[in-house]
Amino acid sequence: MPNITCIGAGYVGGPTMAVIAAKCPEYQVTCVDINQERVDAWRSGEPPIYEPGLRDVVNQCLNRNLFFSSDIPSAIKSADIIFVSVNTPTKDFGEGAGEAANLYYWEKTAREILACSDSSKIVVEKSTVPVRTADAMSRILNSSHANLKFEVLSNPEFLAEGTAIQDLERPDRVLIGGNQSTESGREAVRQLVDIYTHWVDRERILTTDVWSSEMSKLAANAFLAQRISSINSVAAFAEETGADITAVSSAIGMDSRLGPRFLQASVGFGGSCFKKDILNLVYLCRHYNLPEVADYWEQVIKINEFQKHRFVRNILQAMFNNVVDKRIAVFGFAFKAHTGDTRESPAIDICRQLVEEKALLNITDPEALPNARRDLNDLAGRVNCEEDPYKAAENADAIAVLTEWPQFAQLDYQRVFQSMRKPAFVFDGRNILDHQRLFQIGFNVHPLGRPPLSHL
Ligand code: UDX
Ligand code: UDX
Fold first, then answer.
1. Which residues line ligand 2 (CB under 6 A)?
2. Which three-class secondary structure state does DSSP give residue 131?
3. Which ligand is in closest contact with the Cα of 273?
4. Which of 188, 194, 195, 231 is least enclosed, having the fewest CB within 10 Å?
């Protein structure tokens, strides 16, 4: 049975390998990372990331057929199949800065695989990389050892954080891109298909050429983000004209051609992928001389920035155009519920804009406070992190809900109201609270994409 190695034990690599190890007990799975602290956490059975159900899956196979290590050369050497799941951040220097992907880690990893290999291997691209990267990888890998053959496959990961384990266990589809024109290419695809058929129906496993697979991942993320920007743009329109975005979302979503998901108006999308992948798409379209296409997708990001800014502007306007030294309880800092991840979280920009207006912030979040402290550490004097949402709201002038954690909807708002300064405001950037009830308690309620309920 093949030995599997994964390079990069992050949000994608860690959960993916844990599920493969659980579903394929006869395979030995080793996950390596340059970050020793992360490796130690995985090895202890306490994953370094919060993901519902992950700890159980890891502990089911840890030291049975799932291993974590920082010895990258040995893990490469012993592997038959290598998944590459290192990060591909946006480039912040030189050509394409701010848009193109920084492929430094990917290329470094490819060279490392080449240097440490003494047998032929299948290399599986898990990281989202711009189309045609696998081709570059293949050229690097097959550049020197005439007697070794590296087949590069694209197998994009579609898991969403917060539901990673269920997404991995019951994927909508698994996509595998490979070189269909050679026997060794087809054999590599077959080997990867064999892994997934341990728990995924064969008809849900799509095989294609490498380029189509890479492009599908970029396009899927761009479409998902576009839906959010579309509904958020309609939310802005609804607020101005007195419509209710929740009713509009339901009405749109009942059209079976559109479907109900990803129509939740919000303070904006976050997460490590959407913005990065769209910027990448924009860069590539410009590169291929398709400026109209590039502008089209760029607008998805612009609306997202607008939405965050608009939320802050609404807070300011409602609070008499002044938040200087006013205390705002920020409910939620993670980019979505059920994760502690704050990469590209809309909360980062919103908190920074509020502090620019000289507000004082009490941030509360069940999982993301360590990351919030790190993300805003330069604002320490004006930002305070508080585990207990009741304490975060004490003496505050307003509450701003930025993450849809269900526990925020279950608080005793009568008690919260009593502890706050008056007039007390709620800005519900996720529309998860009972607005009528809050209004009856005495709050001035500002939902997203719906008319405010105000006593003023
Ligand atoms: C990453 C990419 O960001 C995403 O585009 C892709 O789709 C999947 O992989 P994620 O797992 O969320 O997503 O990133 P992160 O949690 O940062 O994990 C990457 C890991 O790779 C880190 O733990 C990092 O230490 C490790 N790494 C990075 C290496 O082991 N070697 C390297 O050379 C670079
Ligand atoms: C996304 C893709 O869903 C996944 O397939 C891909 O592999 C990685 O990127 P993720 O970023 O983990 O996953 O979370 P997702 O559930 O897609 O949410 C992204 C952002 O959109 C979050 O900030 C979320 O709050 C926001 N969102 C989502 C909305 O604002 N409204 C919605 O209706 C749905």
1. 157-161, 221, 224, 228, 262-264, 266, 269-271, 273-274, 335-336
2. coil
3. 2
4. 194
Query: What's the pTM value of the predicted model, to 2 decimals?
Result: 0.94
Centre of ligand 1 to C-alpha 68, Å, is 15
Is any atom of ligand 1 closer than 6 Å to the C-beta of 88? yes
Q: Is 333 exposed, middle or buried (0-12, 13-18, 19+ CB in 10 A)?
A: buried
Whether residue 308 sits in one domain with residue 444:
yes
Residues 192 and 292 in one domain: no
Distance CA 368, CA 342 (A): 7
Is the pLDDT reported for residue 218 higher than 90?
yes
- Identify whether 273 is a catalytic site residue: yes
Distance 434 CA to ligand 2 centre (A): 24
pLDDT at 29 over 80: yes
Domain count, the chain: 2
Q: Does one domain contain both 187 and 241?
A: no
CA-nearest residue for atom 26, ligand 2, is: 269
Whether residues 111 and 175 share a domain: the answer is: yes
Q: How far apart are CA 319 and CA 323, in angstroms?
A: 7
What's the start-to-end Cα distance of the chain, in Å? 70
Q: Which tens digits make up the pLDDT trace of 101-147?
A: 888 888 899 999 999 999 999 999 998 777 778 888 888 888 876 68
Give the position, in ligand 2's atom list, of the atom nearest the Cα of 128: 7
Ligand 2: centre distance to CA 273 (Å):
9
Name 223's Cβ contacts closer than 8 Å, sequence gap at least 6: none
Asked if residue 265 and residue 394 are part of one domain, the reply reads yes
Residue that terminates a domain, selected from 179, 208, 237:
208
- Mean pLDDT over the full length of the chain: 95
- The domain in which residue 329 lies consists of 210-456
Selected catalytic residue, list 24, 273, 285, 385: 273
Whether residue 201 sits in one domain with residue 252: no
The CATH number that applies at residue 117 is 3.40.50.720
How does pLDDT run across 343-389, given as a tens digit for each residue? 999 999 999 999 999 999 999 999 999 999 999 999 989 999 999 99
Compute CA distances 92 → 89, 283, 342, 388, whole Å: 9, 13, 19, 37
